[in-house]
Design brief:
Helices cover about 75% and strands about 0% of the residues. It is mainly α. The protein is globular, with a radius of gyration of 21 Å.
């Protein structure tokens, strides 16, 4: 059931991502399946790899490229998820992202490092199949890599936090404040990404609010909201990244959202680490006080 769920989620999100493929029908600047695959392997273990492989094979099988290229891309996408999970396991990664080192590891080892595997193998297979020319290799590789990077930073972090923080009652913020925050994030995002005036700095205050009051769940939820609005308006050639080629403006928008989301996660991690230290100090103080008091 888990394998089938991963394959279906991978395939469905891949179809959405491929709707935004411009330079090549198999390469898109927005690729959520990378985040789904990484989160599945981290949470459920390496045995879930057939679901990743099946979803990748189905997703790329409808793009019109030769079968050997489909199989090569499938191998690259599967190895990418397995390598990312393996690198994270080497550094004692915790999927709750409550430590600064966990956020840095997710960004550096998974989002930046492991995604080079799929990009390199995939673009090489497209070149071998004459789907792209040698002069396009660099630009297509960059689009593939940054699309996968955004999937890990935005989607994988959201899934990991959603699975490990349930039922989301630890943070000090309440439901009414959460609703107000969501409305503010959507409103600010629409203003920022529908206007050609460079106002992207306005996104950071609500992200900081989310991290301070709702910790990791707030940081990833607001990042997803910003990403949804940013992609919709940027794809329509609106907002601060308008005027570029379709792939270029989507890459710029997704990279911005990824960096902003990681910033919010780092702030949330600092807050939770400080809260954990305060709890430990309080426990030690209570223990010492009890040991110094007379028995009666």
């Amino acid at each position: 059931a888990q394998v089938a769920l991963v394959a279906a989620a991978y395939y469905g999100s891949a179809k959405l991502g491929l709707e935004l493929a411009f330079e090549s029908g198999s390469v898109t600047a927005v690729w959520p399946p990378t985040g789904i695959a990484l989160a599945a392997v981290v949470l459920w273990g390496y045995r879930i790899w057939p679901g990743v492989a099946l979803g990748a094979c189905l997703a790329n099988g409808w793009t019109g490229i030769p079968l050997y290229a489909v199989l090569g891309i499938t191998v690259g996408n599967t190895l990418e998820a397995l390598a990312g999970a393996y690198l994270l396991r080497l550094v004692d990664f915790r999927p709750s992202l409550e430590r600064v080192r966990d956020v840095v590891s997710l960004a550096g080892l998974a989002a930046v490092a492991s995604t080079t595997i799929a990009a390199t193998i995939g673009v090489t297979m497209l070149l071998a199949a004459d789907e792209i020319s040698g002069g396009q290799f660099g630009s297509v590789w960059r689009t593939w890599w940054l699309g996968d990077l955004g999937g890990d930073l935005i989607v994988a972090s959201a899934l990991l936090v959603a699975a490990t923080h349930w039922p989301y009652r630890r943070a000090p913020g309440g439901p009414l404040e959460a609703a107000s925050l969501g409305a503010a994030v959507v409103g600010v995002s629409v203003l920022v990404f529908s206007s050609e005036t460079p106002l992207i700095y306005l996104v950071f205050p609500p992200l900081i609010w989310a991290a301070l009051r709702f910790w990791q769940p707030g940081a990833v939820a607001t990042s997803l909201l910003v990403a949804g609005v940013a992609i919709a308006f940027t794809e329509a050639d609106q907002g601060p990244f308008a005027g570029q080629s379709p792939d270029e403006r989507l890459l710029l928008a997704q990279t911005f959202v990824g960096v902003a989301g990681v910033t919010a996660l780092l702030l949330a991690a600092v807050i939770t680490e400080r809260r954990r230290v305060e709890d430990i100090v309080e426990y030690i103080a209570d223990t010492l006080q009890e040991s110094l008091l007379p028995s009666r």
